[in-house]
């Protein structure tokens, strides 16, 4: 910055005026995304938060935030607590199932399927996502019902029939089926990057395949596992079609409860918003956990 | 030098204004109204285009094509699967695209409450005289000033007559035969219908606002619950036909369709009465093309059209002239057109005060979550 | 008892070789990567496998490590057949070219990896990890993550991680390939002293001839899946067995020609471009006495003068100086002979003594300093 000294003061002000100020550059670059996020995410979230502070507000009424009554209601009544636990249970269970089933599949595709077939196999796996979720649930009804495909098969083998439709296992099956492709895709992305040389190094140091898997493959793909679980958990938390169609008479979930608050008989948008904020909170918590994990592993990279 | 001053000043001012705007819409918040519907600003649109918003089973290609052939107006039909979704669409301000909508009775009342509906100019409608007298004066819209009834039906039980003997005749049957029916019956996924059935089974009205009666209705249902496979409006059909279910609570229109598929499936309106529903055509205040809307209503009122639609889509028409044109088969179908003695015992679902609705909602949540 | 007997027999059968390869082949599909290798590596030896990229040297090392299994032939480590033994049951450890450190573990955890798998006691692990980190001068970094280390430091950790297991054989796959020149020289010195200190068998794969020459007890030069020569560094340099070895190791002037006459200790060769020269026959292996040969002369063995050499005991040729390359410690001169051949002559660092470009010069060398090898073209 020695040259400005030679130029006249007026000149320097002019040039400063014409040039975009330094601090503005990041804003200019992030502007479009920021505006998008602001309009589509932040403002709606704030609106919902504000609505959640109005007890019993219905469409057409004046919004006048007055307290946390809606939140207290969630925890005051057993019914809602039950709903919260059921939703968490479905989402967590589905996440566990998807991880248990998805990891071997993703590992197989990423490490054992020849490269030229990989995309085809992946597409095959993702294909179910192209059908509507409603259709998938109805398909599972056909499979799981007492005289359905599954039970005909079991009976033909001389095995006892299973009565799982309209019970929680059916929900886990339906949700896992819908969400497994996401898990597989994310785990695949992470396992495909897995450095084979690290597996060789482990073997070289005396690790048998199983030990290599637990001591190298799993820790190396931890960010992928975390991301996959998070995605499945969040999506599972928002799913109400599978619980409602497959879960039987006791299948009220947070998502369905929220739906009912907005579109059902009572139209209690305030309570619905409070429930929504609870889900946002749960999801944020999950993301925070992921970031914590993610930080550690990215520091390792 | 002065230009710099101005630009900085205006930047600050801009910031201030936008902050103020932001806070007035979302942060400070006092005084804005939730989902205000701007009914005074109709959308203009192509006069050769009519958008209708209806139930998926109320229209088919033939119907739309014939209307276009008669009037030259192209029809775009969007569908919904519950009144609540339709209402939400309007409350979110997205209903302005439609010129004809098909609400069910209590939804008509709600739309009236929200001042969404235009009063009909009866001079522009012909064929109203064919509508049966009992549909001429709705409790939701006295004098039918805002709607034209297009179909009606009941809620009842659809059952497998091969396996259920004796056949169910009243709501009591569910409780009395709960062991036979255990996990082989479904109820509607509609709080008012399900609680209503329980109310009716105990001799109360579908439209009661008495908390004690509502509680009794809930308790009776809670008692039955272990035997209920699930609450569903649609998903029972295949299972009933396959024999996995023995009985489902459903609407007459579905009962008739299932019976068409398998004559062993029978639809019955419980003796002590059930709910009676009507679907109607209305024109929203915001209708972009009221001209075409009237043309559509007149078209649907033509006895020949109404009769054909009944034959093709199996929903009961309230149009006497159309009824007369139906085949005897259909006219004698008691599921589609129950005798007056049955209809007399049925009730329309009335809009309830907020307190009662909240109570119903709470019982429903309890019922479906415990 | 019978097992001990077996082991005894093994010990008695012990030939003093840590690694033995017998007629080992490796095919990838129908593509041969290794074509019949016979190799015995002695206990405590620093052995280098040297060759250009794609010659099969890494495949050979990977077979010893167990990441590949031979398509044919036998592989023995310490006298025990290892063809089907997985890597985790072999008494060898590898230092990988890319180091392959576990980035989710600290330096100490990386080094402890092998010992933990062997379920050693915590105390023993701690002691041995500290000891081997000290050996590679990394004791101060034990709590760092690999990402926080430089390339040279990662290299040391990789070494420590392998050595801590006290393998019978340490395999090194281009261990210094990723380091810059100065660091590489430093590490070479340390590798050499580690080898002296530990007395382990080292098997190193490298394409850097200087590294191989300076570190190894013996070198195996590989070309196109075959071992061309296995010898001590000086023999490899002074007495190459094949034109490939002569050409690959150091600088060489090569002439293709034909044997015209044969005396004990001396051959007469006429090159394809008509140069006649007296040549010492290769005194090892099956030295050619007739037919086509390749004559090789090292640049530093060649004399250089502006006057015609008078000594009749030397081969001498007239040529013109075409190019001079100053290389610091010495000077490379390119001389175009009258036959058209170019020769590289290495002169001591004395730029003042170099004649003008394109001037007439004479190159000469005694017959003992050039070697006739069976031609590749034969």
Q: What fold name stands as the CATH topology of the largest domain in chain B?
A: D-Maltodextrin-Binding Protein, domain 2
Enumerate the spans of chain B where pLDDT stays under 50 for 5 or more consecutive residues.
1-31, 35-42
Strand residue content of chain A: under 5%
Shape of chain B: globular
Order of SSEs of chain B: HEHEHEHEHHEHHEHEHEEHHHHHEH
Q: How does CATH name the architecture of the largest domain in chain B?
A: 3-Layer(aba) Sandwich
GO biological process, one term (chain B): polyamine transport
GO cellular component, one term (chain B): periplasmic space
Signal peptide (chain B): 1-28
Subcellular location (chain B): Periplasm
Question: Which terms summarize this structure?
Answer:
heterotrimer, A: 301 residues, mainly alpha, MetI-like fold, disordered N terminus, disordered C terminus, B: 370 residues, alpha/beta, D-Maltodextrin-Binding Protein, domain 2, 2 domains, seven-stranded mixed beta sheet, three-stranded parallel beta sheet, 16 helices, 15% strand, globular, transmembrane helix (chain A), ABC transporter permease (chain A)
Give a written overview of the molecule.
The complex is a heterotrimer of chains A (301), B (370) and C (378). Chain A is mainly alpha-helical and 301 residues long. Chain A has helices spanning 9-18, 24-52, 69-76, 78-112, 115-126, 133-144, 149-156, 168-192, 196-204, 209-220, 222-238, 241-246, 254-263, 269-300. Chain A has a single domain (71-300), classed as MetI-like (MetI-like fold, Orthogonal Bundle). In chain A, helix 4 (78-112) crosses helix 8. Chain A starts with 8 loop residues before the first helix and ends with a helix. Mean pLDDT of chain A is 84; it is low at 1-16 and 297-301. Chain B contains 16 helices and ten strands. Helix content of chain B is 43%, strand content 15%. Chain B is globular, with a radius of gyration of 25 Å. In chain B, helix 7 packs across helix 8 (211-224) and helix 8 (211-224) packs parallel to helix 16. The model of chain B is unreliable at 1-31 and 35-42 (pLDDT under 50). The longest helix of chain B has 26 residues, at 2-27. The relative contact order of chain B is 0.17. Chain B has helices at 2-27, 61-71, 83-91, 105-113, 172-176, 178-181, 191-201, 211-224, 237-242, 252-261, 290-301, 303-313, 320-325, 328-331, 340-345, 354-369, and strands spanning 49-55, 74-80, 100-101, 147-160, 185-187, 228-231, 247-251, 265-268, 275-282, 347-348. Chain C has 378 residues and is α+β, with helices and mostly antiparallel strands. In chain C, a hairpin with a 2-residue loop joins strand 4 (72-77) and strand 5. The termini of chain C are far apart. Mean pLDDT of chain C is 88; it is low at 1-13. Chains in contact: A-B, A-C. At the A-B interface, helix 2, helix 4, helix 6 and helix 13 of A face helix 1, helix 3, strand 6, helix 9 and helix 16 of B.
């Amino acid at each position: 910055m020695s040259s400005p000294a030679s130029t006249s003061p007026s000149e320097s002000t002019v040039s400063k005026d014409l040039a975009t100020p330094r601090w503005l550059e990041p804003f200019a670059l992030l502007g479009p995304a920021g505006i998008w996020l602001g309009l589509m995410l932040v403002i709606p979230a704030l609106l919902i938060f504000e609505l959640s502070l109005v007890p019993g507000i219905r469409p057409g009424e004046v919004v006048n935030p007055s307290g946390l009554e809606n939140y207290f209601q969630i925890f005051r009544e057993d019914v809602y607590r039950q709903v919260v636990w059921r939703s968490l249970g479905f989402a967590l269970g589905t996440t566990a199932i998807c991880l248990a089933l998805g990891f071997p599949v993703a590992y197989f595709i990423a490490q054992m399927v020849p490269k030229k077939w990989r995309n085809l196999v992946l597409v095959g796996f993702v294909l179910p996502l192209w059908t509507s979720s409603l259709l998938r649930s109805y398909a599972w009804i056909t499979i799981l019902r007492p005289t359905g495909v599954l039970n005909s098969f079991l009976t033909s083998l001389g095995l006892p029939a299973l009565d799982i439709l309209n019970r929680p296992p059916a929900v886990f099956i339906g949700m896992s089926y819908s969400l497994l492709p996401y898990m597989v895709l994310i785990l695949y992305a992470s396992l495909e990057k897995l450095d084979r040389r690290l597996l060789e190094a482990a073997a070289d140091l005396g690790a048998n395949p199983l030990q290599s898997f637990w001591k190298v493959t799993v820790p190396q793909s931890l960010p992928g596992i975390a991301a996959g679980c998070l995605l499945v958990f969040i999506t599972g938390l928002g799913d109400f079609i599978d619980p409602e169609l497959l879960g039987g008479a006791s299948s009220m979930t947070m998502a369905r409860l929220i739906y009912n608050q907005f579109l059902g008989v009572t139209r209690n948008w305030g309570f619905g918003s409070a429930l929504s904020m609870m889900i946002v909170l749960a999801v944020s918590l999950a993301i925070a956990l992921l970031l914590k994990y993610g930080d550690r592993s990215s520091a390792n990279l | 030098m002065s230009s710099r001053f101005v630009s900085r000043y205006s930047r600050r001012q801009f910031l201030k204004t936008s902050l103020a705007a932001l806070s007035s819409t979302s942060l400070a918040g006092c005084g804005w109204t939730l989902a205000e519907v701007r009914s005074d600003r109709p959308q203009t649109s192509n006069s050769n285009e009519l958008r209708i918003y209806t139930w998926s089973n109320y229209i088919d290609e033939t119907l739309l094509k014939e209307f276009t052939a008669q009037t030259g107006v192209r029809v775009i039909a969007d569908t919904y699967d519950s009144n609540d979704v339709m209402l939400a669409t309007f409350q979110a301000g997205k209903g302005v695209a439609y010129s004809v909508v098909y609400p069910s009775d209590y939804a008509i009342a709600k739309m009236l409450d929200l001042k969404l509906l235009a009063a009909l100019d009866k001079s522009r409608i012909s064929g109203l005289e064919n509508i049966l007298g009992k549909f001429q004066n709705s409790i939701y819209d006295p004098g039918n000033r805002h709607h034209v009834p297009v179909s009606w039906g009941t809620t009842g039980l659809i059952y497998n007559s091969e396996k259920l003997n004796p056949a169910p005749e009243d709501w009591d049957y569910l409780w009395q035969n709960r062991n036979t029916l255990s996990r082989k019956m479904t109820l509607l996924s509609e709080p008012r219908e399900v609680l209503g059935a329980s109310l009716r089974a105990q001799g109360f009205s579908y439209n009661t606002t008495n908390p004690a009666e509502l509680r009794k209705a809930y308790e009776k249902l809670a008692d039955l619950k272990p035997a209920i496979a699930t609450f569903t409006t649609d998903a029972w059909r295949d299972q009933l036909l396959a024999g996995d279910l023995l009985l489902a609570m459903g609407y007459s229109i579905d009962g008739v369709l299932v019976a068409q598929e398998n004559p062993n499936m029978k639809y019955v309106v419980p003796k002590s009465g059930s709910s009676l529903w009507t679907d109607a055509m209305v024109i929203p205040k915001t209708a972009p093309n009221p001209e075409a809307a009237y043309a559509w209503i007149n078209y649907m009122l033509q006895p020949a059209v109404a009769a054909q639609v009944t034959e093709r889509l199996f929903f009961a028409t309230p149009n006497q002239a159309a009824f007369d044109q139906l085949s005897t088969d259909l006219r004698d179908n008691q599921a589609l057109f129950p005798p007056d003695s049955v209809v007399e015992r049925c009730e329309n679902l009335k809009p309830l005060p907020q307190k009662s609705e909240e109570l119903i909602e709470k019982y429903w949540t309890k019922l479906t979550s415990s | 008892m019978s097992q001990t007997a077996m082991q005894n027999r093994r010990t008695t059968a012990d030939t003093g070789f840590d690694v033995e390869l017998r007629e080992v082949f490796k095919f990838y599909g129908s593509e041969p990567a290794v074509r019949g290798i016979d190799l015995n590596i002695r206990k405590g030896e620093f052995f280098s496998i040297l060759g250009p990229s794609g010659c099969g040297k890494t495949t050979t090392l990977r077979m010893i490590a167990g990441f590949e299994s031979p398509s044919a032939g036998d592989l023995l480590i310490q006298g025990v057949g290892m063809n089907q033994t997985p890597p985790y049951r072999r008494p060898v450890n590898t230092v990988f070219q890319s180091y392959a450190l576990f980035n989710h573990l600290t330096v100490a955890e990386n080094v402890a990896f092998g010992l933990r798998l062997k379920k050693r006691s915590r105390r023993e692990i701690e002691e041995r990890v500290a000891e081997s980190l000290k050996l590679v001068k990394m004791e101060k970094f034990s709590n760092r993550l690999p990402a926080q280390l430089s390339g040279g430091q990662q290299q040391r950790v990789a070494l420590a991680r392998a050595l801590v297991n006290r393998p019978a054989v340490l395999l090194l796959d281009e261990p210094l390939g990723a380091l810059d020149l100065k660091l590489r020289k430093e590490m070479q010195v340390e590798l050499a002293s580690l080898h002296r200190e530990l007395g382990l068998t080292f098997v190193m794969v490298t394409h850097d001839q200087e590294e191989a020459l300076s570190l190894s007890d013996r070198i195996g030069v590989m070309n196109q899946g075959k071992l061309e020569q296995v010898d001590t560094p000086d023999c490899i340099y002074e007495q190459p067995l094949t034109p490939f070895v002569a050409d690959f190791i150091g600088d060489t002037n090569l002439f293709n020609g034909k044997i015209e006459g044969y005396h004990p200790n001396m051959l007469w060769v006429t090159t394809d471009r008509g140069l006649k020269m007296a040549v010492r026959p290769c005194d090892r292996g099956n030295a050619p006495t007739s037919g086509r040969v390749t004559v090789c002369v090292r640049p530093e063995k060649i004399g250089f003068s502006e006057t015609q050499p008078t000594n009749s005991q030397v081969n001498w040729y007239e040529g013109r100086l075409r190019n001079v390359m100053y290389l610091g410690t010495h000077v490379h001169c390119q001389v175009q002979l009258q036959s058209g051949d170019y020769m590289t002559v290495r002169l001591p660092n004395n730029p003042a003594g170099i004649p003008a470009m394109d001037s007439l010069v004479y190159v000469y060398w005694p017959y003992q300093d050039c070697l006739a090898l069976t031609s590749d073209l034969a």
